[in-house]
C-alpha cells in the first residue's frame, strides 16, 4: 500500500522563491561621486617675486644656487637676514647679496646687424632715426647699446641691461676683439699699411691696431682691421690721417659674436653659451 501524503515533510523548502529572483541585499549607502569643492586659492600678487628668482634675475646665480645662499644667510631683505625658502619680496624691497644691493631686472642681450642711417643713441633731438627703433619689439626691458657705431657704419651692435658686462666690453683694458671690413676710395699702399701696423700719432694721441690686412681675393681698396680701441670714429680717422676716405665701414665681429644668419636690420637674442662666453672675458 502506498505511503500516505500525510507522511511527507511539511517543512518549507529553501527554494520556494521563484527561480531567477535574487535575495534582497542589505541596504548600504554608496559613496557620493561628488567631490568637495577645493578651497579658494590665494591670488598671487603681481608685485611680488620669489626671493630665489629675484637673485637669479639679478645675474648672481641660478635659482637652485640662490636657495643655498639664502639658507646660508648671505641674503638680506630691507636690512634683515632671510633664510626662509619660498620667501617673496617686492621689487621695491632692498635686497642685498653679501651686502651688495641687487637689481631684480631680468638680464637680456640683443644682437643687431645695424644698417646705415641710424644713429647709436636712445633718442635724438633732431628727429633722426635711432637704433632703438630697430629693436623696439625685442624686449620690454630698458636696453642700452654697448658702445657706438656712427650713422654710416653698419654691422654688429650689442644691446643689454647688464651694466657690469657693458663696462667690461667697452673698457680698452679687456681687449675686446672688434673686426671691421673697410672700403676705401682708393687702393691702400703697402707702405701705408705698414705705417698703420706700426702705429700712428693722431690729434688725440697715439693709436695702434691689433692687426690689419688686405682682404683675400678682393681689391686693395678692401681692408680688414682688428682693433680694441673705443675712441670715437677711430677706424675712419686712421685712414683719413693718411689721406684716404672710408666709403663703407662694416663691423663683422664683436667680442666673438658674428653676423652669421643675421641679415642687415635684423636682431636676435644671444644664446646662453654666447652670454657665458662674454662674461668669461677677462
For the record, give the distance between the C-alpha atoms at the N and C termini, rounded to a whole number: 127 Å
In which range does the helix fraction lie?
Answer: 10-25%
Element-level helix/strand string: EHHEEEEEEHEEHEHEEEEHEEEH
In DSSP terms (H or I, runs of 4 or more residues), the helix count works out at 7
Main sheet: strands, sense, barrel: 9 strands, mixed
Percentage beta strand: 15-25%
Inertia-based shape: elongated
Query: Spans of 5+ residues with little confidence (pLDDT < 50)?
Result: 1-12
Q: Can you give the mean pLDDT? A: 86
Q: How many E-type strands?
A: 17
Decide which structural class fits the backbone: alpha+beta
Radius of gyration: 38 Å
Describe this protein's structure.
With 282 residues, the chain is an alpha+beta fold. The protein is 19% helix and 24% strand. It is built from seven helices and 17 strands. It has helices at 51-57, 63-71, 131-134, 163-170, 190-198, 234-241, 272-279, and strands spanning 48-50, 75-77, 80-81, 88-90, 95-97, 100-101, 109-114, 144-145, 153-160, 178-184, 200-202, 205-207, 211-214, 222-227, 246-254, 257-258, 267-269. Strands 7, 8, 9, 10, 13, 14, 15, 16 and 17 form a nine-stranded mixed β-sheet that branches. A four-stranded antiparallel β-sheet has the order 3-2-5-6, with no helix packed on it. It has a two-stranded antiparallel sheet with strand order 1-4. Helix 1 (51-57) packs across helix 2.
